[in-house]
Predict the structure.
Amino acid sequence: MDPRALRRSFIAGLLIGLNVVWPILSTLLVLMVVLGLAIGLIEGWTVQESVYFSFVTGLTIGYGDLVPQDAAHANARHGDWRLRHPGDRIGGCRGREGTDGGTRGITSAAG
């Protein structure tokens, strides 16, 4: 195939792919910026710090140089077990083990 025709075919395919992907990517970018600005407003950060935080966090890079200090975020930041296991607050059902540490119904050989 002629290199010029191959290049045209590649560019045509690329543009078709971008028409599909661009709305999704642009929505994610706008969502990241808006949510970053919301966190920045709560935390009292500048616009640059807010956008930087949203992309570093959203892309799971997580340098840790900007960390939310608001009390509402403290439990999530420190890994509060109630946030990781919401079933514990609703009927005591955890799914992995019972409330007795997983020993319910197990008897020892000595007893």
Summary: Residues 54 and 80 are 22 Å apart (CA to CA). The chain has a mean pLDDT of 77.
